[in-house]
Amino acid sequence: MNVFRLSFLLVFITQLGTAQKQSNVWYFGNQAGIDFNSCLPLALTNGQNPGSEGCSSICDTIGQLLFYTNSDVVWNKQHNPMLNGNLVSSGGTLSQVMIIPKPSTPNIFYVLTTQIQGQSSLNLQYHIIDMSLNGGFGDVISKNNVLTALTITEQIAATYHSNGVDIWVAVHEYGNNNFLCYLVTSSGINSLPVISNIGPALIPCNSGMNARGEMKFSPSQKKLAINNNGIGNNANSDYLCLFDFDNTTGVVSNFINLSYERGGYGLSFSPDNSKLYAATWKALNFTSTDSNKVYQFDISGNDSVSISNTKTILYTVPLTANSPFGSLDIGADGKIYVAQSNSNYLGVINSPNQIGTLCNYVSSGFFLGGKTQRMGLNNHIEYQTYCGNIDIHQLNESSRNQISVFPNPTTGLLRIKSYIEYDSISIYNSLGELVYENKKPLQEQQIDISKQRAGIYFCKVKIGNEEKKLKIVKID
């Protein structure tokens, strides 16, 4: 890799890493929330969001909350409704809502809302917020702007353009197989989408239930997946599909149909892009013998059969437990959080890059401080780096060159793991002093830094001509 390209990528990574702090605070469910700014997730109990389903929050570039929404109402950082902050009358039941910054335009943000179950009462709309107004608490300066009168599903996702500045927003028409991808630049939202006719047509079913579910881009920005919420007496109403995405052109391609569990809803890629997770909310015309599930695919293959053969059920809950699964979202710590309606715990996939049950799904993984959740978490542009497992994958597009360090934060023992053999490893304290070095080629090792003082450390791993850096937090 030449010096110019390496320098460009490092600047690009720095910009993306800073931007990712904009997703460090989540508000969702029955006034529940999480703060990831210390990397160790902290339960928040001061929110006002009663969000039944889709929720989105956004922070400034240093991780301080700006505002959040459930599509009906926008709340400012003081947890009061923002001026002009009543957006759409959905009862908070849209599967996904999205907040994105306007590229290269400080203080301006878009809230994007969709359409309830393919019904005609709403459209794909955008709402503009100016955070420089109202003493820094923000004001909705324009709302209910219709992007298209076409009937769309409740799903919406966003990712960065290949230039690292502009943003793609993706939705799906209801009743056919059209993806609509809108490019957002410093000039605004281009009203003419890139249309990709690919995958199965979303044929309307009873109550438009399969217009619900989640759509997600992979952290690599190169994959797109969609999970649609069918009904119990019509197995053909469900869809779980994987696609390639060109984040330069906005074109969706290479349709792969996956073996679904009926009543699909939540969806997430793993941080290293090698796994796809899905979950169910069986809401209409199912029986008491049915159950809700969380499951995983290894998507390193490139065809429907090989991927579907890797399907692993991670957790099952009887319908009688009245705790369906909702959103799946990657946190800033690189773990995947799973909404479990009516519970005061989030499920947590602790090692989502690992295959099958090694991913370590824990149903009572994160206590919400006494608050309960519903179906939504925080829909956001996926993180590019993670505070607990810094993943500089842009230095090499092959995920096998990634390095992981865990647990992080640590009280002393660290495990360093690489998918290929690395040449050397060094750890420095915040003063730049070398505290550990091993020049023996390895793929995995355990390191003891328990005698070092608490603070920030930096790990340098050399693989060939590349040097990868990871941040380590040592606590007492």
Summarize the structure.
With 476 residues, the chain is mainly beta. It is built from two helices and 35 strands.
Describe this structure in words.
With 476 residues, this protein is mainly beta. It is 5% helix and 43% strand. The protein has helices at 3-20, 304-308; strands at residues 25-28, 32-35, 42-44, 56-59, 65-69, 73-76, 81-86, 98-101, 108-113, 124-130, 139-148, 157-160, 167-172, 178-185, 188-189, 194-197, 213-217, 223-228, 239-245, 252-257, 264-269, 275-280, 291-298, 312-318, 325-330, 336-340, 345-349, 361-367, 403-406, 413-422, 424-429, 434-438, 442-448, 455-463, 466-474. The strands form nine sheets. Strands 12, 13, 14, 15 and 16 form a five-stranded antiparallel β-sheet that branches. Strands 4-5-6-7 form a four-stranded antiparallel β-sheet, with no helix packed on it. A four-stranded antiparallel β-sheet has the order 8-9-10-11, with no helix packed on it. A hairpin with a 4-residue loop joins strand 26 and strand 27 (345-349). The chain starts with a helix and ends with a strand. Residues 1-18 and 389-401 have low confidence and may be disordered.
Instruction: Give a count of the beta strands, DSSP E runs of length 2 or more.
Output: 35
Radius of gyration: 22 Å
- The total count of helices amounts to 2
Mean of pLDDT? 89
What is the terminal-to-terminal distance? 40 Å
Note poorly predicted spans. 1-18, 389-401
Shape: globular
- Output the structural class: mainly beta
Amount of beta strand: 35-45%
- How much helix is in the residues? under 10%
Instruction: Let me know the largest β-sheet.
Output: 5 strands, antiparallel
